Amino acid sequence: MAQVTMRDMLEAGVHFGHQTRYWNPKMAPYIFGERNKIHIINLEKTLPLYIDAMNFIGRMAANHGTILFVGTKRAAQSTVSSEAKRCGMPYVDRRWLGGMLTNFKTVKESIGRLKKLEAMLEDGQAGINKKEMLSLQREQAKLERSLGGIKDMNGIPDVLFVIDVGYEKIAVREAVKLGIPVVAVVDTNHNPDGVDYIIAGNDDATRAIQLYLSGAADAIIDGRRSVAAAAFAKEGDPDSDLSGEKGKVDQDGKPDDSAREKQENSATMQERESPEKIESPEGKQSASSSESVVRDVPGQDMPGDDKAENSIPEE
């Protein structure tokens, strides 16, 4: 995950709140002051909150959790869809349908209808006239706008990541009702109740929204990558599993000693076949042949022969 600093937040305009007359008193702990009748958010508190929220999202992604991105306001639509696609998570960027979480069974039927229409249109519309085809295309486009971001979501998400809790109050309400953790950007004019991980900051500026969403996407990618790296390291550790045989148990639940017996048998065979213990017949034959060749060379005596030739027999 890219490290976000306080300077990055300043440049993105995270510290700009709403007009003072629209403020919510429950956001007072996160307000630094006011300037030109606009509240200034205390980034010294926002930055730790942001880091905690991103760490939570990363942990949920590492545990194979599903994070649903929600941002239907115009300033957030394109960024929500692009960042959610980048990290492979579902999203809602056009309109939050009432009951999308609390009545997910009915929503899933609509998703099935959308997939069926896509399959029909891809097959070439065999046996469908032009008028019926146009009607199906319109229905498919309508469902795609509302459900296209969640058509691959098989169940209730594990986390809701919301931009602007005031604009998405229905989504937050449904998540609270189902006990789904909510990570949300809360501006000075909104109520933070129901939000588990608050990110006090500007929810209107495009650059600020980009900072929040890109950080969440990076946290998800890093969380999944850490799990994959840990699994790869575990598989590549030679001492972890003893060639896949250590730690096995038999059918009775007792430790399987076959691996140890195989190692002992292999060690015994190596000792028996060691060249220091056994000398092959080929080795003996080669040694005797080399000695005979040396003796047959003319003009060369073997050690000890000159003593026999120069000695005078005793009378």
UniProtKB/TrEMBL annotation:
Q: Keywords in UniProt for this one?
A: Ribonucleoprotein, Ribosomal protein
Q: Which domain of life is it from?
A: Bacteria
The identity of this protein, by name, is Small ribosomal subunit protein uS2
Tell me one GO molecular function of this protein. Answer: structural constituent of ribosome
Recorded hits in HAMAP family, A to Z, give: Ribosomal_uS2_B
The primary gene name is rpsB
Q: Where is the composition biased (Polar residues)?
A: 283-292
NCBIfam families in the record: rpsB_bact (TIGR01011)
Q: Biased-composition ranges for Basic and acidic residues?
A: 243-282
List GO terms (cellular component aspect): cytosolic small ribosomal subunit
Q: Cross-referenced PROSITE patterns, in alphabetical order?
A: RIBOSOMAL_S2_1 (PS00962), RIBOSOMAL_S2_2 (PS00963)
UniProt-listed SUPFAM superfamilies: Ribosomal protein S2
Q: Does the keyword Ribonucleoprotein apply?
A: yes
